Structure formats: C-alpha cells, structure tokens
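Practice problem: predict the structure.
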Amino acid sequence: MSTNDWKDISVRKKEEQLSRIPPSYHLPLTPTDDVTNYLSEVRRCGLLTEQEISITEVYDATALAAAIRKRELRVVDVTQAFCKRAAIAHQFTNCLTEILFEEALDRARFLDAHLDSGKTPLGPLHGVPVSLKDTFKIKGYDASIGLAARCFQPADENSVLVDLLLKAGAVLYCKTNVPQTLVALDSHNNIFGRTINPLHTALTAGGSSGGEGALLAMRGSVLGVGTDVGGSIRIPSMCHGLYGLKPSCQRIPYAGQEEGQKPAASKVSISASAGPIARSMRDIDLFFTAISKQKPWEHDPDVIPSPWTPLSTPTPDRTTKKTLTIGVVRTDGITTPHPPISNLLTEVATTLSHSNKLTLVELNLAPLLSQCQPLVNALLSIEGANHAFDLLESFNEPLSPWLQPRLRRKPPGNLDKARELQARRTQLQKQFLDVWKTGSSSSSSSSSSGGVNEIDALICPVAPHPVPPIDTWNSVNYTAAFNLLDLPAGVLPVRTFSTRDLRGEMESSGVPVGSWDKYNRSLWTNFNRKVYMDSPLCIQVVAPRLQEEKLVHIMSVVDSILHRDAPSGEFDRGKNKTSSAKL
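Answer:
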C-alpha cells in the first residue's frame, strides 16, 4: 500500500471496479435526483435487448434452470443478460463490490459446452447466475467488506458455500455491498459508499445484505446469497419486497467468510447464518435443494447432516390433511408496531383463517421475546468492537453515519461474562421449546383457551414499522430474537403501502416501554407518513430449530393463500399479486 489513508484506497478500489464494467454497459446519462423509483429506468436506458429484458424479467431461477436444461436458453446469453443488468443496477444504486463478469462468461461457455457434449447438468443450478454478499470469499478477489484494511488482499481460497454453488452448476458474477462493520442496518461504507433502495430512494436499502436486496429488486440478480446475524437477510428482503430465509446456523455452510472479526469470534457471541434471497418461494427451495445435494456437512464441520426433499416431491407431511397450526405473534413487548403493521398482520391472519389448511391461534410471547434484545446486544458486543476499531483506525476511517452514535470501544467481556450470557441464552431457548409444544412457555401465555397441542410456525412482523428512511432503522428485536434462539425465519412480501395505511394512531395513552419504543413511535407520530407510500409490506414466518424444510413448505402454503392467482409465482410490487409468466 502506498498510503494508510482510506480515501486513497477508496479511489483505487472504485477505479478497479469501473475497469471491470465494459464500456458498452455504461449508462448514457447519470440518474437524476427527481427520479425516486429506478425500476422503470432500466428499460428506458436503452442498454438491454429484448432478449435480455425477457431473460431478466420473465424467468425466476427455477424457470431459468429448466430452460437451460431443455436448451431453450444458452448459459452464455443468460449470463450476459445478468452481467449487463447488474452493471446497470449498480450505476443506479451502488449495489456492487467485486465484479466478475469476464470470469462468469468463461464459466458460461464451459457450461454450455458441457451440455452440448451430451453430458448431464452439473447440478440443479446449472447455468443459473448467483450473486453473493461481499463477505463470501472467491479466490482471486477481495472480500473487503467495505474496509480499507481489507482491500487489495484477494482471497487465496473460496468460502465453502462458494465451492458448493459452483459444484451445483451456478455462475458467480458479482458480489454486493454491505455496511461498515456488518452490524449496521443501512448499507453504507467509506470504500464503496451507500447502496440506494431502487424502489424508493428516500428509504433505506437495509443491511447488512443491502446490496443483495437492491440488486435483486432491480432484477440484476435472480438468486442471491446473504448472511444474517440479527436480520441481515430479512431486513433487506423487507426493504425490497423479496423472499428471504435465514436458516438455523448449522444448516448451510458459513465457513470461510470475511466478517471483520478475529477467527471464531462468533463462537462466543451469536453465530451468523448464510441463506437465500429470491423472487419466489420455489427459488428458495431450489437453493436448499442444490446445496443439500452437495452434502455440505462433509465440507463444513459446523453443518449437521440434513438431506432436503424438494417442494415438488410429495411427502407424508405435505400430502396428509393435517391442518397446520400457526401462532400469530403481534408484538415483542419492546416496540409497539405502527398501525399499518398491526393492521397488516390482522389482514394476513384473517385471510389465512379462511383456509382449511391452517388453524390460527393468537400467542402472547412478549414476556419471552422482550428478554431477547438486551441479551442480543450484550452478546454481539462481548468483544467490545475492539478489532473493528483497530481495522478502521489503521486507515484513519471514520464511522459511518448510522454507527456514529451507536458504536464505541469497550473493554472486552471476560470468560465469566461470556459464560453467563450464553447460559441465559440457553435458558431462553429451552423456554421456547415449550412454545412449539403448547403455544406457551413458563414466561409467556397463549390467548387461546387452554393452549394448543402443537405450533407448527409463527407469523409476526419483520419490524415494528414500514420501510423507514435512510439511517433511521433502530430496533431489530423482531428479527434478532430468532438469531439468538437459532430459529429459521423467512420473509414473505404481502403488498405495498397504500393510502389506507396512512390512517391510524399509536395508542394515545400508551407510554413508551423504553428508548427503542420511543424512537419507533417517532417514525409514525408527527412524521411525514407519505414517505412510506408504495414501499413493500411483508410478514415474517418462523419455525422450530433446524426445520428449514418445514418452514419453506409453510411459507409456500401461506404465500399461495395470500397470492391465490399464481401459487408458485413471485410477488409483483406493482400489482400486489403474483406473475405467472414462465413460472
């Protein structure tokens, strides 16, 4: 390095990034400030052919894989389309970090030749372009996670999941932007800058997989992989109206990630999970099918053996007439949901209650869930952020805006402190086991008379507010609680925020529970609510630990009920319904 100043590193990194975008992919005009939704701008820029528009807009990942297997589409054409669209998306939203277009096209030619020779596909993802969060290591490329101290240090080996995606036939073509330190909720760092939400430029793109969310929303990706230690898959999924799933931490390989921490630091904190972000539930299923076929437990010691049966394969659990019991959880007891969030949950519960596939029960889990946020914060800060500050200060980097009032160096916790926190966590996990059995625990109660025999899944908010403006997302207990408890949790888009959602007030007599609740109320009371217009409204679905297959099945059932016109399709933000084209 010629200098230890982050500004110089940022300039060099952006120059490298620009050099990897072909001149023919450059936008003819810079996006103007008066445009607040970039989705329609992609077509207007004139860079995409009709075929490229069709490939990136009509197909989901499952349909692409099928078309490639049938030789209706060539991998090189699919890869070219997504490379070009990713470059366009980046110029609008600043969503990319590492760009691998040349290598991706070489890979595409190899995959086409493989099929042309009469060989069977490498795996379920043969020829499907897959984007990755910047934390994943790809040999020969940086995993800088937006830190100057990690730039120009290309990885000498792949993350485990990267190797498994390649074995499954995927084409890896780009990595996506993240927030500084990976624990912020708005994707900004000093090296690459801020990722913009293409649905509404005044609203946050979320974090820490914010680049993935923006890229998928712009259809610059058909299937992305993020990571989640407090909501980092689910928050960007909500911000962009996408399907996302955080598995239990022992389900999908996480080994070989760049986290900006010392090795194995998460073992004494909260372990992160890797998981998919997609545009349909069947693509979520495709991801788990593809990875499970590679027997990931033979490649990552943290992954337990867990075969996967695709949704398309009948199983007794799916074909029997057993009614699924879904618990409705309305609040975490820390932050009171805004009226549109409460109303959305009522709307969803009412719709689901009319189905003979489901039985819904109201659950009060606030006494248990309210204990999670303080414990999450304590565990995530056990190291005192000292290593992160060491990396930042080595290149004179300032903290990002969202982190400035929130992150400080602290003395690291000692062994007794770590042990005590983990003991409290284990106790909460034990209490939650009773929730699945009876709908209540020793510290919570069910509002259904006499409780219930068994809860198959929960539905609850993703956040207590709609998608908020940039740098204003504050509380994460609705997502982070399920990282603490190590429960698989996914996000389903329902519809967009409309005029009817502007109505309603927080309880006038309600006193804020604490600082998180007080701040959350400020995003609704005496606030310009119109900023939320047309933003996605989503719900979260949660299942018992390591029951990802059950979660995907239940999410698919719920999704099909909420969007009856095309059960296997994808959420359409413009029409509040699903699109059946090619699905």
